[in-house]
Amino acid sequence: MTADFRKDGSDRLTLFMILDGFRHDFLEAAPYLKSIAGWHGKIRETFGFISTRPAMCAGVYPEQTNLCFEYRFAPHGSTFNPWLFHLLGWADPILPNRFLRLAATAWLRMTHREPVARRTAMIGHMPFSHFPLMDLAEHRLQTEPEYLSIPTIYDLLKSHGQKHLYYGFARPKHRFETMKRVYSRFVSGDLFEADRTMVDRYRRDLRGQRHDFAHLHFSACDWIGHRFGPDSPQMEEAIQTVDSWVKEVHEQALGSYGDVRILATADHGMVNVREHYDIGQELLDPLPFSEPDDYLCFRDSTMARFWFFRPRAEDEIRKRLEKVSWGRIMDEEMQKKHHICFADNSNGDLIFLLEPGAVLLPNYYQAAGTPPKGMHGYAPEAPDNQGAIVIHAPHRSFVAPQGTTLDLVDVFPTLVDMHGLPLPHESMGSSVLTQ
Ligand SMILES: [Zn+2]
Questions:
Q1: pLDDT tens for residues 26-58?
Q2: pTM of the entire structure?
Q3: 2, 31, 80, 209 - which has most CB atoms within 10 Å?
Q4: Within 10 A of 94 (CB to CB), how many other CB atoms are there?
């Protein structure tokens, strides 16, 4: 039996659903989302990887927060203890690398004070000697006060005495959920388990108490897009499954609340991977410079970020990168266009961005092996890198025609407007709803 909150006068719930990796055309295969869409369009992500969180929760670009990539250059950072990583570097030739990385991940997750490191740290394939020079860029969760120096949607809800449910990035998990996640990741390979568990928990939590706002993050399309590709049969199944969960979440809310509003948006799309490149072998290894003494290169899947400690190393590396056909150096014009004119060099002295469909392999998230079949994190204007957005706001009309492409920073003002809260002046985007 579900509680009927209409009786105590609190009749409204806003559902903010992030459909990770849900490319704009996936909507055609999602009958429920299409049926409830008062308005739908495309969404252009902010440049980088973690910049999607500040964009969606506060309507700001990477250069306003300095949050763009998971790792930043910070020789005195607080996350990676130098002595431990020096020790791991020495042990590397003796013990199997994979074992050391799993042990270091477990150690960080068990001992770290900050919830971001405790819940999400993963020692990937960056050389151990680089860790003491780097730090995680985020030290707070987006739901915590002071995540940004400007108000987020969670700050607004709190200051207006409103309650929210949160099932997003780095959400707290019960012990049993963690065990299920480890089993599904390492043993059964079930890529739907996380979302299914989240929907079950939402159903339970919704019954208990009145809430004003719920944030749900569906990961299945992203994970399946990476593994099988955005045009695979597995992706078709993922789209339909996520669509059925959206229906379940909506119907559950309608059982308790008379007025349910929905903003369902992708954070980015998914591009078919056609080719992969080893930046070490092809460009860097033949040079007479070494890491981390002369330069540092963080190998992400779709970009390489460089820091230079010797001018000659910079000159030579730049010259080599300029000749490459499968990527380009982000020049000043591109930095302005994508709002990444940072105040310091913690995100890189130089960013080399790959063309859509190319990936670096190996990179610091994936060692050599089967390349991913789908990827995102390319230039935000690349058509397949764009996601879908759906708005269900009964009795509201829209300023833009159906199918318009919005920037990810427009999500926050639209959400705040739809939910009925005042918009902070720091937000860069604009609402797609008419006033
Ligand atoms: Zn992804």
A1: 999 999 999 999 999 999 999 999 999 999 999
A2: 0.92
A3: 80
A4: 7
Is residue 406 within 8 Å of 41, Cβ to Cβ?
A: yes
Distance 357 CA to ligand 1 centre (A): 14
Cβ neighbours of residue 242 under 8 Å, at least 6 residues apart?
Answer: 19, 22, 30, 195, 218, 220, 221
Give residue 395 CA to ligand 1 midpoint distance, Å: 35
Quote the ligand 1 centre to 141 CA distance (angstroms): 19
- Distance (angstroms) between ligand 1 centre and the Cα of 269 equals 9
CB contact at 8 A, 66 and 137: yes
Provide the residue count of the chain.
435
Cα(193) to centroid(ligand 1), Å: 17
pLDDT digits (tens, 9 = 90+) for 221-250: 999 999 999 999 999 999 999 999 999 999
Instruction: Report CA(156)–ligand 1 centroid distance (Å).
Output: 28
Q: What pLDDT is attached to residue 10?
A: 65
Compute the distance from residue 432 Cα to the ligand 1 centre, in Å: 26
Expressed in angstroms and rounded, the spacing between residue 75 Cα and the centre of ligand 1 is 28
Q: Which CATH architecture has domain 12-63+141-272+381-419?
A: 3-Layer(aba) Sandwich (3.40)
Rounded Cα distance between 400 and 420, Å, is: 20
Query: What does the domain layout of the chain look like in residue ranges?
Result: 12-63+141-272+381-419, 71-136, 274-371
Whole-angstrom distance, CA of residue 385 vs CA of residue 407:
12
Class of domain 274-371: alpha beta
- Rounded distance from Cα 374 to ligand 1 centre (Å): 9
286 Cα–ligand 1 center, Å: 32
| Contact yes or no for 390/264 (Cβ under 8 A) | yes
